[in-house]
Amino acid sequence: MQAYRTHNCGQLRPSDAGRSATLSGWVHRKRDHGHLLFIDLRDHYGLTQCVIDSASPNFAAAEGVRLESVITVRGEVARRSPETVNPKLATGEVELAVSELTVLSEAEPLPFPVNSDADYPEETRLRYRFLDLRREAVHANIMLRSRVIASIRRRMQEQGFTEFQTPILTASSPEGARDYLVPSRLHPGEFYALPQAPQQFKQLLMVSGFDRYFQIAPCFRDEAGRADRSPGEFYQLDFEMSFVTQEDVFAAIEPVIAGVFEEFGRGREVTKPPFPRIGYEEAQLKYGSDKPDLRNPIVMTEVGEVFRGSGFAVFSNLVEQGGVVRALPAPGAAARPRSFFDKLNDWARGEGAPGLGYIVFGEGDGGAEARGPIAKFLDQARLDRLRALAGVGPGDAVFFVADRDKAAAAKLAGAARTRIGGELGLIAQDAYRFCWIVDFPMYERNEETGQIEFSHNPFSMPQGGLEALETKDPLTIKAFQYDIVCNGVELSSGAIRNHRPDIMYKAFAIAGYSKEDVESRFGGMLNAFKYGAPPHGGSAPGIDRIVMLLADTVNIREVIAFPMNQQAQDLLMQAPSPVPPARLKELHLRLDLAPAKGQKER
Hints:
Blueprint: E1 20-32, E2 36-43, E3 46-53, H1 59-64, E4 70-79, E5 94-105, H2 122-127, H3 129-132, H4 136-158, E6 162-163, E7 181-183, E8 191-193, H5 199-207, E9 212-221, E10 232-242, H6 246-264, E11 269-270, E12 277-279, H7 280-287, E13 301-302, H8 304-307, H9 313-320, E14 324-330, H10 338-350, E15 357-361, E16 370-371, H11 380-390, E17 397-403, H12 406-423, E18 431-432, E19 434-438, E20 443-445, E21 452-454, H13 465-471, E22 481-486, E23 489-496, H14 501-510, H15 515-529, E24 536-539, H16 543-550, H17 581-586
Parallel strand pairs: 3-5, 6-9, 11-18, 12-19
Antiparallel strand pairs: 1-2, 1-4, 2-3, 4-5, 7-8, 9-10, 10-24, 13-14, 14-17, 15-16, 15-17, 19-22, 20-21, 22-23, 23-24
Helix pairs in contact: 4-6, 4-16, 5-15, 13-14, 14-15
C-alpha cells in the first residue's frame, strides 16, 4: 500500500465508486453539519470532498485540525447524491468516506486565508509567498508560465533554433540600466556584473558559426519596479540568427509568438503573421506612443494646417511657432452629455495640460453642424477640412492636443487616446493585436547634458551603414532596430547587429566613446568581429510580460513565483541583507554608508 496516496485530489471519478483510496493534501475548507463533517482536501492537481461521520473515531481529530494543515485520509469512494453534485469540480460527482485520518503537519493560524481570492496587501502576500502560491489564481498563473515556456522551447526548436546557456558572471555592458555588481575575492578591487542581457555572448555565438541560438535567459537590472517590470531579475526569450535581414527575423519569430498566444489565449483573436510594421515616427503621430494598443481604433492626425491663420489664436500662434496640433477622433461621442467632455478636460488638467479642446459634429445636415468651445473660430471650409483629416462624421467628436514640443504633444495625445477609447468602450477585450515598431532613431540628444546618445541598442546596424554615419546629422539616422508590441505592451526590443569594426568605432565615437573606450569595454566582441563575422540579428521577447498578458493581469508580480517588491526587496528571504564584517574583509570591501537619519556623521 502506498503510504501517502493512491490517487491525487483531482483524480477520482464515478468509475472509482466502491473502491478504497488514499489521498494527501491541504485542508482547504471545513463544513460542520453536526453529524457530518466535510473537508475539502486540496493538492496540486485539484480538490476532493471528504466526509467524516460524527461516530467515527477520527471525528475529533478532523474537527480540531486547522485550515492548511497537511493530512492523509483513507476511505471508500462514494457517489454523491444528484442534488449534492458539484459541477464546478472535476471530482464533483464523488466524495471520500473517511475511515482513517493522519495529521502530517499542523498549520498555525494563517496571516490571510488561502481559500479566498480576496485582495490582500502586497507586502503580506510577498512575505508569505509560499501561502500566496497555494491560492488558486496565483497557482494557475505559475503553471501557465511553465506551459508557456515549454511551448516556446518546442516552437523555437521547430524553427531550427538550438538552446545554449551563456555566463551569469560577466563584464559590465551599456544596456541602459544599472548593473548588479559582484566583487571578486581573487581579484581585489575588481567586479563582475550580472548580465542585463546575454547581448555580447549571443553575438559571439553567431561569430562562432552556430547560426540560430536561443535560451530562456535570466537578466538582471538594478532599476525601479513598476506594474509591467519586475525589479532585479526577469526572463526573456533571447534569440539570434546569422545571415538574416530584419524581415528574416520577423518571419522566424512571428509563428512562435502567434502560436503561443493562440495556444493559451482562450479563443481570443490573435494577429496572424505577418504582423503590421509601423515606423517609429508614424507610431508617434498616429498613436502618440511607440507601444500602440491596436485594439483601440482611434488614429490621430496632425491638423495644424486647419488652424494656421484661423481665428483661434491659441492654436494659430502655436502653429506659426513650429508647434503641432493633434486631432483625436471620438466616434459617436456627440451623443454623450456635457459632463463627458468636462470629465476629460479635468483629466487633462490633472496631467498638467491646459485641457482638451474639442468640437462636436451633430447628426443633422450631414454633420455640418459643429459646436464646442473651438467650433466658432473655424469657418465651414476649415471645419470640412478638419472632418476629412480626422476621419470624423455626423455624431462624432474630435479632441485636440497642442504643444510646441512634438514629444510632449505625442505623450499627452497617446494618453488621451487610451482614455477616450476606454471611456467610449472602443477597446476590444477579446483580442491580442501585435505589431512591429521599426525605423527607430539611432541616436537621441540627452535633454540634461545636450550630448548625443544611443537611443536604443548600441550594437545596432545604422541604416545606410558607414556612409550615413559619416555624412548625415546623427539625429536623422535610423537604425535597423525594432520592437514587438502586443496590446500596448512592449514585449521585446531587437536589432540587426553592427558586425563591422569600422562601423562600430564610428557609431560609438558619435556617442562620445573613444576608440580606447570601445576596445576596453567591448574588446572580446570587437576582436571576434575582426576575424570574420556574419550579418546577424535577433530579439528578446519578455517571458514575464507574455505570461502577464495571457493571464489577464496588469501586475507582473502575479506571474512570477518569488518576485521582489517595488523596492527590490525579497520579503520572504529577507534580501538584501547585511554581510558580516569578516566576509567584507575577504572581498576587500569597506562600507562607506551615509549616516542614518538623525545620526551625526563620525
